[in-house]
């Protein structure tokens, strides 16, 4: 008889939800995390009364009512709507690409005029079937927007030219012929009031959590504790990188407290030119309509991941897809271990998809 039914490796969103549901079903669960805190990459830390998104801005949005009802049982969400501003060498544009953007870019006033402009740029570029991100972007919004708002940002973000990136990345962004600066086409959107850390703490209420506990370093002892393991760390690290490391993009934040109430007037400003070294500046207070006398900003620098860095974005291109498939085949052989979450499944997951995936695992497992 082992002490626990499940050892959950990683106290992020996926692990916390699985643990919560398992305990609800009467299972004995231990959650561990190598960090000194719960919440994984949605961890928020209070500075000057402001919840700072330590591992990058997270804005919850979903079209799935079940997911929304599920997550809001743990905390109330505010009415934050993401509408980033793009700064291209001092010219400001509305995001996502919508009538405000088209009007500023071309002076067009009606949706028909905007559509005609995009169509003529698409035709001039001669793209019929987009094969990569550059072609996909031009065919969606034309060359001008591609050059000013997409090309530089994307190359900084991914460290690769747009011609070498898969087109699905850009399809995350809506294109609208309406005056609507809401970044997401989602029925439900908001930020958990009190921060994401509080949300995860609520999900993990009354569940045994061991922090500063690195699974891969204490594997032999930890494996003895539970019948099954839910592993939400990086899948390649689990297998000792035996086929080589999967590539990630990492992000570095330079966070600063400023002695003024308002630095940029918006939570997110993207710097879309190629020269500015950072991709965006986050002003955290505006996620929660903060009125504190000071403000906290983070400049976000994108970098290639190397061993020892925090992995953020999986690079879901062909080469890494093939490598992942090899690790996935090994993972399928590990009958006692379930791999889940963004790192365990090597997927560019939004938070709502993580919740869907965790709940679907719960249905199967529990
Ligand atoms: N993107 C862009 N310009 C922008 C914002 C986004 O070209 O101002 C592209 C870029 O390729 C990025 C993708 O759209 O990787 C997805 O952006 P999203 O904001 O969804 O990325 P995340 O918030 O997950 O970093």
How are the elements arranged and paired?
Elements: E1 4-9, H1 13-24, E2 29-32, E3 44-47, E4 50-53, E5 60-62, H2 65-71, E6 85-88, E7 91-94, H3 99-106, H4 111-125, H5 133-141, H6 143-158, E8 188-190, H7 196-203, E9 208-210, H8 219-223, E10 226-231, H9 235-238, E11 248-258, E12 268-271, E13 280-283, E14 295-304, E15 313-314, H10 318-333, E16 337-339, H11 341-344, H12 351-365
Parallel strand pairs: 1-2, 1-10, 2-9, 6-12, 10-16
Antiparallel strand pairs: 3-4, 5-8, 6-7, 11-14, 11-15, 12-13, 13-14
Helix pairs in contact: 1-12, 4-5, 5-6
Uridine-5'-diphosphate is lined by residues 86, 95, 149-150, 153-154, 157, 169-170, 172-173, 270, 272.
Explain this structure.
This protein is of the alpha/beta class and 366 residues long. Helices cover 33% and strands 20% of the residues. It is built from twelve helices and 16 strands. The protein has a seven-stranded mixed beta sheet. The protein has a five-stranded parallel beta sheet with strand order 9-2-1-10-16, with helices on one face. Strand 1 (4-9), helix 1 (13-24) and strand 2 (29-32) form a beta-alpha-beta unit. The structure holds uridine-5'-diphosphate (UDP).
């Amino acid at each position: 008889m082992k002490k626990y039914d499940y050892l959950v490796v990683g106290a992020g969103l996926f692990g916390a939800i699985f643990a919560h549901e398992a305990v609800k079903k009467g299972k004995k669960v231990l959650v561990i995390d190598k960090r000194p805190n719960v919440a994984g990459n949605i961890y928020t830390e209070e500075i000057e009364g402001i919840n700072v998104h330590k591992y990058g801005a997270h804005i919850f949005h979903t079209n799935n009512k079940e997911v929304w009802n599920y997550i809001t049982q743990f905390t109330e969400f505010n009415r934050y709507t993401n509408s980033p501003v793009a700064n291209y060498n001092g010219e400001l544009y509305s995001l996502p690409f919508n009538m405000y953007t088209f009007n500023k870019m071309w002076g067009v006033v009606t949706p028909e005029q905007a559509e005609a402009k995009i169509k003529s740029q698409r035709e001039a570029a001669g793209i019929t079937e987009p094969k990569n991100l550059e072609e996909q972007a031009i065919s969606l919004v034309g060359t001008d927007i591609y050059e000013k708002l997409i090309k530089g940002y994307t190359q900084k973000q991914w460290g690769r030219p747009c011609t070498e990136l898969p087109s699905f990345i850009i399809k995350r962004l809506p294109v609208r012929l309406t005056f609507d600066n809401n970044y997401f086409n989602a029925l439900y959107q908001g930020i958990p009031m009190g921060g994401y850390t509080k949300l995860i703490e609520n999900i993990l209420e009354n569940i045994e959590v061991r922090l500063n506990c690195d699974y891969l370093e204490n594997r032999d002892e930890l494996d003895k504790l539970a019948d099954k393991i839910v592993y939400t760390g990086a899948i390649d690290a689990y297998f000792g990188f035996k086929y080589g490391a999967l590539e990630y993009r990492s992000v570095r934040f330079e966070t600063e407290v400023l002695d003024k109430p308002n630095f940029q007037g918006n939570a997110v400003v993207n710097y879309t030119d190629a020269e500015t070294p950072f991709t965006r500046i986050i002003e955290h207070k505006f996620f929660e309509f903060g009125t504190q006398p000071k403000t906290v900003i983070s400049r976000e620098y994108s970098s290639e991941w190397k061993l020892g860095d925090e992995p953020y974005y999986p690079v879901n291109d062909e080469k890494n897809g093939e490598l992942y498939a090899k690790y996935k085949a090994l993972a399928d052989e590990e009958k006692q271990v379930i791999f889940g979450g963004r790192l365990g499944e090597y997927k560019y997951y939004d938070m709502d998809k993580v919740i869907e995936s965790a709940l679907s695992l719960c249905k199967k497992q529990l």
